[in-house]
Write a structure and sequence with these properties.
Rossmann fold; 5 strands; alpha/beta; 19% strand; five-stranded parallel beta sheet; single chain
Length: 166
């Protein structure tokens, strides 16, 4: 039986830290479904289609073992629908752990068959987050070595458009 994990997130935008988690997760799972959580209350820089495009382009080397989708609702329900065995989550710091631990316990309460697996982000990416990267890029910071090439290009385009309207 194929071992499948769901790697949920907003991926707004995808970072090299996300790629690191997928690459290492593929040493444990046969397939990873990178799933964009649709949250209408959260304002995103990129729409769902843009994020899916960036994910697919960034992870093309893994394409036979990675799928990309967007979903609504509870992650644990989505994992069950996809016949996944686990929810894969990346941890950067102790501050991530408290929130992720609570979510893992809630998910376990909702469905005891779905496990949560935490992978520590590689030291090279431990300080990065999509929010910090967007903030740096918004003010002209060089993010080239923190994100895939397509993300670097798209984020520059996005902020050039925003700044030209101001």
């Amino acid at each position: 039986m194929e071992k499948i994990a769901i790697y949920p997130g907003s991926f707004d935008p995808v970072t090299n830290g996300h790629l690191d988690i997928v690459e290492r997760g593929l040493k444990i799972f046969d397939k990873i479904v990178v799933a964009i959580m649709c949250n209408p209350t959260k304002e995103s820089l990129f729409n769902i289609d843009e994020r899916l495009e960036m994910l697919k382009t960034s992870m093309h080397a893994f394409n036979t073992h990675v799928e990309f989708e967007a979903f609504n609702g509870l992650t644990v329900d989505y994992a069950d629908e996809r016949k996944a065995h686990a929810i894969l989550r990346g941890l950067r710091a102790v501050s991530d752990f408290e929130y992720e631990f609570q979510m893992a316990l809630m998910n376990r309460r909702l469905n005891r068959e779905i496990q949560t697996l935490f992978l520590m982000t590689g030291l090279r990416w431990i300080f990065t987050s999509s929010s910090i990267i967007k903030e740096a890029a918004r003010f002209g910071g060089d993010i080239e070595d923190m994100v895939p090439q397509i993300v670097n290009e798209k984020i520059k385009e996005k902020f050039a458009g925003i700044q030209s309207r101001q």
